[in-house]
Amino acid sequence: MTAGPVPIVLVTGFLGAGKTTVVNHILAEADGRRIAAVVNDFGAINIDAELVAGASDGVVSLANGCICCTLEGDLLRTLANLLRRDPRPEAIVIETSGVADPADIVRNLMDPVIWREAPLETVLCVVDATAAAGGLEDPLLRAQLRMADVVALSKTDLADAAGQRSIRMALAALRPAAVLVEAPEGRIPLPVVLPEDPARPPRQREAGPRRPRIDRFETLSWTAEAPLSLPRFQAAIGRLASRLARAKGMFEAVEQPGRSFLFQLAGGRATLAPMTQGPEASATGLPRARIVFILEIGRLSLEEISVELGQCVALPAGR
């Protein structure tokens, strides 16, 4: 079977904002997924002792299936080495330096060759909630915020209510397109930055929609047993986008029989990319279209999504 794309989460933020704590949380809460973390300094990662399994060639293996490595030399070379590992990571988290403008890294990751193998899923900017809102005037922090799909307020357990209100208002003005979440002690809600692969079967059947660990967001899934019309799908997503925090999925297109597309939406930015040819959905028992939506609770219902996307499903010949 051809390996699927490996999503990348880019973690940025000013010095001392709490990026490493967030990365630690992502690795510790991987829930069985193999996640690779690329960091500037190994020693900065504070992985709980019970997670560490061993180290070799600059890569620390973790007992939960994750790995952690230092950023040595060229970023693209580091990514290529990770993608050649067996087993391959299911996701990659890159922690940038606190004094880095992530724009150049984002440009590198948008390279078509890299995008096919490891598409940029989310740019996450970590902001210290205890810092004064005036600190957001820093040109470097503003550059980091400009690239963000998701802004995580760290240290909210240490910030007073008035200070939090002030910094939230400032962030909303500076980066209105980003999703703003709280991350006390680094506890970022993982589905917001790294949704589960919609191709993966659910671990258990649930009566209602699966919800992230905070009561602000919910996850809704939609599937279809037929290919979708590309122009109708793009139009439907355009109508839904303003009410979505994140969306990701795979589907076959009626305009290109046998070709599957990877769809992603983050921070109002939607992308569609042809996938490397693999087994058809019918051979794997999976629906031919499967999309996961993450949104604030109550913003949309599954019925509304089904009405919009139902219009995209190609009818059988003769109907």
UniProtKB/TrEMBL annotation:
Signal peptide: none annotated. CDD domains: CobW-like. SMART domains: CobW_C. Residues 197-211 have a biased composition (Basic and acidic residues). Keywords: Chaperone, Hydrolase, Nucleotide-binding. Residues 217-313 form the CobW C-terminal domain. InterPro entries: CobW-likC_sf, CobW-like_C, CobW/HypB/UreG_nucleotide-bd, P-loop_NTPase, Zinc-reg_GTPase_activator. It catalyses: GTP + H2O = GDP + phosphate + H(+). It comes from the Bacteria. SUPFAM superfamilies: Hypothetical protein YjiA, C-terminal domain (SSF90002), P-loop containing nucleoside triphosphate hydrolases (SSF52540). Residues 192-211 are annotated as: Disordered. Belongs to the SIMIBI class G3E GTPase family. ZNG1 subfamily. Zinc chaperone that directly transfers zinc cofactor to target proteins, thereby activating them. Zinc is transferred from the CXCC motif in the GTPase domain to the zinc binding site in target proteins in a process requiring GTP hydrolysis. This is GTP-binding protein.
